[in-house]
Design goal:
Number of helices: 5
Strand content: 35-45%
Pfam families: TAXi_C (PF14541)
Number of strands: 28
GO molecular function: aspartic-type endopeptidase activity
Shape: globular
Family: Belongs to the peptidase A1 family.
Helix content: 10-25%
Low-confidence stretches: 1-75, 307-333
Protein name: Peptidase A1 domain-containing protein
Radius of gyration: 20 Å
Structural class: mainly beta
Largest sheet: 5 strands, antiparallel
Mean pLDDT: 73
Length: 333
């Protein structure tokens, strides 16, 4: 029987656009050194000279990646992983599991040994979590897209980013997906709620709309269900969680940016040691097992339930999405 751990989390807000989080919203009175959990113990890591603990309240949020801004590297997490790895305490591996059913989820730093996760290579020499997208299916039928849509390079390619709420697609990809998703619902009338495309619908969207599958190198699929790419914004009002990247910043027009609405209810593992990333559909209210690199022992990391809601609740003005995340304090008991 493996030792148990208790996970203490903190709520954070994912702010759309480039607006900074409220001062002290999640890290009030942060000490000059940041407590970060590893597989078996709490470790205090001094932040870089001249900086403090992250006030964005997320170790994996990329500053500037909400809404319209170009991607920027996840600086705080990189610093934490580098320091812990240099000290021999952990490998450069972290994982998250965002629970949109019960709220909360799992965040852990270290080698995930259970469940096993299939991976795809990260694109070398790129500043973000770039991966090679091979094809896209809607309802089991492959979309006919120009081959250059799957190229990787500057200002093009596919990025996995849990710091971004929505999913942004090149205009041609966005239009093809939307046509396929609504092919059997030509009677639906759309209207805009701020920047979102919304529609009235009575019925179960999971029963009546198709699954979308993104296929990546090494035969790794990412299944996105209707409850992932639609979100409720009132009684029988659904909005689309995909955005037309052609209407966003110039730098993002040719990029596929997959945010946390499509990564939710999946365990996502970022293995920077082996330069791969992977995921598996998972019950994020359960637990995962992490290996302690110093002792070889295996520890269980439990989920932390923050919200009593069953789904994400979008505020009336859609300015702030309250999501739940784990800010990584592990206490052995």
């Amino acid at each position: 029987m493996t030792p148990r751990t208790r996970l203490l989390g903190a709520r954070f807000r994912a702010i759309r656009g480039s607006a900074p989080p409220p001062t002290g919203a999640c890290c009030p009175g942060a000490p000059p050194a940041c407590p970060v959990s590893t597989a078996s113990r709490m470790v205090t890591v001094a932040p870089p000279q001249g900086t403090s603990c992250p006030t964005s309240c997320s170790l994996i949020r990329c500053p500037g990646m909400g809404g319209h801004d170009p991607p920027t590297p996840p600086s705080h997490l990189g610093v934490v992983l580098s320091k812990l790895s240099a000290a021999g305490k952990v490998k450069k591996i972290f994982a998250h599991c965002l629970d949109t059913i019960n709220g909360g989820g799992i965040f852990a730093i270290g080698n995930v040994v259970q469940p096993k996760v299939k991976t795809t290579p990260l694109v070398p020499n790129m500043p973000h979590y770039n991966v090679n997208l091979k094809s896209i299916d809607v309802g089991g039928t492959a979309l006919k897209l120009p081959s250059h849509m799957f190229d990787t390079g500057e200002k093009k390619g596919t990025i996995i980013d849990s710091g971004t709420t929505l999913t942004y697609l090149p205009e041609i990809v966005y239009k093809e997906i939307m046509l396929a998703v609504f092919a059997k619902h030509k009677d639906i009338t759309f209207h805009n709620v701020q920047e979102f495309l919304c529609f009235q619908y009575v019925g179960r969207v999971d029963d009546d709309f198709p699954k979308i599958t993104f296929h990546f190198e090494n035969d790794l699929p990412l299944n996105v269900y209707p409850h992932d790419y639609f979100f409720e914004n009132g009684d029988n009002l659904y909005c689309v969680g995909f955005q037309n990247g052609g209407l966003q910043s110039k730098d993002g027009k040719g990029m596929v940016l997959l945010g946390d609405l499509v990564l939710s209810n999946k365990l996502v593992v970022y293995d920077l040691e082996n330069q791969v990333i992977g995921w598996i559909e998972y019950n994020c209210s359960s637990s995962i097992k992490i290996k302690d690199e110093q002792t070889g022992a295996t520890y269980t990391v439990d989920a932390h339930n923050i919200s009593s809601g069953r789904r994400f609740h979008w505020q009336k003005h859609l300015a702030v999405l309250l999501v739940t995340m784990v800010y990584s304090y592990l206490i052995i008991f």
